[in-house]
Task: structure prediction
Amino acid sequence: MGKVATLFKVYVDQGKEASVGKEIRDKLKPSSMQMEDVAFGIKILKVMFIHEDTEGSTGFEEKLRAVGGVTEVEVAEESLL
Result:
């Protein structure tokens, strides 16, 4: 099987972006993460995980939802590497 890159859009309570980002970095060890301005001061975190094709992305989504301050998680992109 191959590797898969899954990019999540993580919506966070306003003003908690930095602390949530730190917790995600420390606990989940994503491949990459960046903060993006969406509109009117709303910011989201774009979090990417690279994993084996057999793992699936559901586990990562559940772990992201469990982080305090996260309000919504959606899969933005998923592709084979």
